[in-house]
Amino acid sequence: MKFLSKSAVSAIAFSMALTAGAHFADAKDKVKVAFIGPLTGGVSAVGVGGRNSAELAVQLRNADPNAKYEYELVAMDSECKPNVGVQVATKIAADRSIIGLVGHYCSAVAMGAVDIYHKFNLPMSVWGAVLPDVTYGNDYKEIHRVNGTMINQNDVAAKFMTEQGYKTWVIIHDTTDYGKGHDKYFSEYLTQNGGEILADFGVPADQQDFTAELTKAKQLNPDVIYFGGLTPLGVRIRAQMEKLGITAQFQGVSGIKSDSFIDGVGADLSEGVVSFLEGAPVDKLPGGQYFTEKYKAAGFAESEEAYGPFAFAAMNLILDGIEEVGPNRKKLTKYLGDIHGYESIVGEISFDDHGQNTVAAITKYVVQDGKWVVWEDSEYATGKRKLAGK
Amino acid sequence: MTQSFKDKAVIVLLAAAAAAFTITFIAIEEQAEIFALILFAAALVFAGAKFGFTRSIAQSLSRNERLMNVAVIAATLVVIFWFREDHFPLLMIATVMLYVIACCGLNMQFGYTGVVNFAGAAFFGVGCYTAAVLGDTSIPLLLVIILGGVIAAIVGSVLIIPVLRTRGHYAAVVTIAFGLLFRTFLEVNDTLGGPQGLGVSGMNLFGWDFNNNIEITENIELSFYLNYVILALVMVILTFVLMRRIERSWIGLNFDAVRLDETAAACFGINIKRWKIVAFTLGNFLAGTAGALYAMMLGFIAPSNFAFSDSLILVSIVLLGGMGSLWGTILAAGLVVLLPEKLQVIQEYRFLIYAVVMILILLFRPQGILPRGLRAYIPGWRG
Amino acid sequence: MDVGLLGQFVVNGMMLGMMYALVAVGFTLFFGVLDVIKFSHGDVLMVGTFAGFSTYLGMTAIGIDNAFIQLVGVLVIAVGSMAILGAIIARYLVLPLKSAPPLNTLLVTLMLGTVLREAIRLFYPDGSNPKHFPSLLPTESWSLGSFTLRADSVILLIGGLLVIIGVNVLINRTRLGLAIRAVAQDEETAKCMGINFKMIVLLTFALGSGVAAFAGVMNGLYYNEINFGMGLLLGVIGFSAAIVGGLGNIYGAILGGFLFAGLQTLGAVALPFASAYKDVFAFAVVIAIIAWRPTGLIAEKTSERV
Known about the structure:
Chain A has 390 residues and is an alpha/beta fold. In chain A, 44% of the residues lie in helices and 19% in strands. Chain A folds into two domains: 6-148 and 281-359, Rossmann fold, CATH 3.40.50; 151-278 and 364-377, 3-Layer(aba) Sandwich (Rossmann fold). Chain A is globular, with a radius of gyration of 21 Å. In chain C, helix 1 runs parallel beside helix 5 (151-173) and helix 1 (3-34) packs across helix 9. The interface between B and C is large, with 45 and 43 residues. Chain B: It is found in: Cell membrane. Chain B: This is Branched-chain amino acid ABC transporter permease.
């Protein structure tokens, strides 16, 4: 039975090599850091990608002879369920040997867990959850977030799409906190920018058939179909639009900016789909290329997905902090609070007094020939290719 | 050595062993240790059954029920005391206890009366939301817990007509549909926080704030979860007494008659509808009270906690323990709540392994871990 | 609402109803012979779809790219392998629990569903992400105003209909069907009449699981997307549909399937409140129907089992 994944095997081999090496070098103090994400269930692809990226950051740090400590990663599964999230958060926060945490892709889980981190003074950074309230809903100095919120994203998205000359939208969003939040902020910014919303459909996150909603959308004949939700649903909706002969432009959110979206709908149908993601484009930054190379070299079985770079950047930030101020939660919290203009693989990071990264540059992406391409570099921006209905 | 002395010795030893096992199981973290302990327990149970120890122990237990109850409570207190400063183990122990209460409610329905309920998590959730909404008002929080149960029972009354008219799988679908409807409604409707969930204020009993650590001296600081564990333990004991009293009274007799044969029971003048309503309502009440305290303990609730799969977890505890068996429910709740948590070490593989373990247990013990014995006219009565 | 649009909704709803009905038929068959609910049914469907998908990948890899041959291959492998899987589940998980409380079968199969789902997610290459299922059917479409009819939808509808008719003929017109019905009526009497009880149970489970695999492939061809979680909701809805229609009755399963699809479509497009409430609406109606007809719309013919 192939019980352990390739990533686990490589991690074991790696740590064995490391222990062997440690005999020759000075024995370093061990420091524990933690990761929380959804490792089982519907959105596990993103969670496992984030876990691998955080693990990579730890591996690379351990391989660095200049590092002062030897790090151990404790990774936990939140199942994307708040009650399980609170449990694992308590487990990690109560374990005093764990100094820092990179956690949460699911906003509802993060919302429930932040109180615990505050109570136990555990400094942490969110790597994927985009609900604004995670950082802005409290005054906890322990809570930080390297990625932007859905507010920034939808602000940019609404401006950009209206600039392209689109006038009318039909919104489909899932009824989780993620989808509903996107719906709220996009509608807000779109109306400000003069776009018109013809209809707004909420759908459960496990729905398979969207023909009823899409047929109604077809009748309204919008310029754009906006989808607020994650890859699996996005794939289904894009594929079913084709079945019903809907030619409107398909606009997604950060949740679909993954290679699996393109694999899922196929290169033809994904052509021209636009999406928005916080952070500078990873491949453009020198650190980003380094990350992509190392991730490939580490031999993980799963892809890093859209939020892997954020998990990597957040983990690196925490490791840098521990190197700087030592393994102490209070000192690390203070270190993180003072972060300003920190260079990371997702661009500069500067936290405001809520711990929110304010340099949340939003990058616009479009699918071109089966690949996500930064809008400004695409043939769409030069006018060589045209978005749907243009 | 007299028989009664031997019985007592067996019970005390058993309770001590159970406490030791629980402490070890909760405390260990390493993958190899966890699997070794699970295998060890399985081997012990298997050997016990093979060489007939299980039966003689069971006889000793049934002869000294009062002592056994005391021993179990003492063992639980030992476990709690052992972890007095550790937040996470206490949280898990309290969670197991609250699941036990909710599953006692389901046992009243499934195990005693034969009314199926696949929406346990929904009624648990009604209790949680009651605590979230009423927790900030001036209503005393102990009363809020009871109100959680009352409101769960009231919400459940919507289903009484379909549940009374249907049986078996048809009743199952009624409750499954209700469970799905409940969760979707909470997500779509924003008045109760929507998908983002709601914060819940912690328990506060006569000015004693449950969410603060208990400082005894400078160096000894007990975990704040200890408050919740003790309150949950009190609730479990009350629930247990209630369940036992009902089981052994004429009410329990009526329940059993309804479950075993509705037609025959009706022929003997038993009002089937009345007893089904009583069992269904009381069961939902228990699930609701457990939910209310659970919400206060976690401090945060969201609709995705009350999905169909969570109802199924409650049902699987009841089935795994053995329908209607209270001690079985406790064992099964411990297993179902703690095992996935222990399996965190294998991360994304944990549900696969958990499901396989459950299948194996059910194949080797189809009646549940500790099946409830056949009912005598008056249980525990020896003429 | 204009007629073309109405027609579009009807065709969409029929497509959805056909898939629900095919799943519900499986539930009703299993219940008929053994009085058990096999909750892993939706996940068997999912595994069947992945088996079909792998077959397609394999055939493409060895150079067979004729869509028709590929389709036949996908169907044969998917249906065949799931029929075997169904029989194995019956032999090793369902039959051994025959004397246990019926709810235990439900729990075991539920756990099996988790095992299948997690196994695909973890061990199928990149299994946690959705996969692009190929279009193997002709994709021409005819448009009439706002009404679009696609060739593949028509073929799938006809295919589904043929399978349901086939199952019906098998149950009601053949010796095997007679044996299945006999076992469903009374296990002991059937045994006395020389029917190999175990064999009939295995065959019934194989049949039901094969139909589920067909529904899965149909699902893949229609939506062009498959994922490891697709069986979960289909299973619950299929079960509800079988119950609403009346267990142990194939017509009931079909009726239930189409009814449920109709309710969902109606809830999404024609109700005054937000479309997100459509599942709340559909399940509320299901509860109401069961309260009104406690043994389903088409009640079981046999008298109450005591």
